[in-house]
What we know:
Number of helices: 4
Radius of gyration: 32 Å
Strand content: under 5%
Order of helices and strands: HHHH
Amino acid sequence: MMDHIISNVNFIYFTLINGIRGVISQSFSEALNENITQEFKLWHIIGLCLAAVIAIVVIGCCCFDYRIPRTKKQIMENYERRKKILEYSKALQKVAKSPTGKNGTEKESLPGSEVVT
Length: 117
């Protein structure tokens, strides 16, 4: 079975290569209508390849939330936002580590903050 698959792949590969070599010498419109395989013309192959590339790009853009800020103002706003978040998290860590509250007394536990073991 594997030999059959490999022979089909080799046939398609050599057919494409020979078809493209023969197509180069013809005019462009004739080249697009040249049969590469028995079922596909050159423009079918090109269209399928372009559709695959576009699909990969669209899927990639949907899966990864990567946005490029459009202006310098947006870049600076993102920088300031990240800086404030970092400062806020550092302040929370200091408060969580300190054994006393603001006025020097022991911290009161908040309702619902008890650790259940």
